[in-house]
Amino acid sequence: MRSIIESVPNFSEGRREEVIEAIVGAVRATPGVRVLDVKPDRDHNRTVLTLAGDEASLPAATMALFEAAIERIDLRQHRGEHPRMGAVDVVPFIPVRGVTMKDCVALAKQVGSQIASRFSVPVYLYEEAAATETRRNLSDIRKGEFEGFPEKIANPDWTPDFGPTAVHPSAGVVAVGARAFLIAYNVNLATSDLSIADRIAKAIRHSSGGFRYAKAMGVALQKRGIVQVSINMTDYRKTPLHRVFETVRSEAERYGVNVVGSEIIGLVPQDALLAAAEHSLRIEGFSPKLVFENRLAEED
Predict the structure, then answer these.
(1) Is CATH 3.30.70.670 what the domain over 183-290 is classified as, yes or no?
(2) Annotated catalytic residue within 78, 82, 206, 279
(3) Using 50, 70 and 90 to split pLDDT, how confident is the model at 299?
(4) Per-residue pLDDT tens digits for 193-205
(5) Strand order from edge to edge, sheet including 259-265
(6) What's the predicted TM-score (pTM) here?
């Protein structure tokens, strides 16, 4: 069985189409890597890639990504709604088939070392690859963002895991890690009042007493004139999508606001959507085997 690892790098450009195409094109040209999804966001000014490859192909794809991104992205000129600290902001590796989390941790360390030596970008290891608990949480690493990192990196507690102890002048720093499958899930609200999205985000995120496996923040979508509750679901089996959505909708109703819709950034496991269907349709005795395509796959 060929091993499959997912990687979901985020880079800090979501508006200039020619830049996005050039960066994605560099990744596509890497043998052995499939680009499964490209999701740019103009308001966030950020693009999320979903890649599939293995321990041999993903390091080369990451190097191609960095080379193309550093050439074209200057964070001194970058503005967007999403917090960021690097031109390539984060590179996670996720075990899918034929590999373990331990393998992905080793891959994260290998790739992090290569990034630092080749591009002189400071690298922080996070989640399962983190050397200490204080670096496990990506939001703790990213706190202060690009503008605050020159002061932060001077603190001995924030010496990079790899690379120089000075921020790259245009590309910043990057977090590289290994983690379980994460769902980036946004719920859009029919209001321009960002404080409402902020209050709802506070109600659902774990750090504020909400769902154990949800991280959330309020974001203004200037072009659409609405706001968004931007959510990272770090374990969809223990904190289901539908439970979070229903809570956001209920909280929004308290402020007289409707939900416009929700969106998934990148790809999502089938089980997460089947669980939402089972909940919403109240199907008795539900099983994934009731799904035609799943049963057909069993016969192949």
Answers:
(1) yes
(2) 82
(3) low
(4) 999 999 999 999 9
(5) 214-221, 226-233, 183-189, 259-265
(6) 0.84
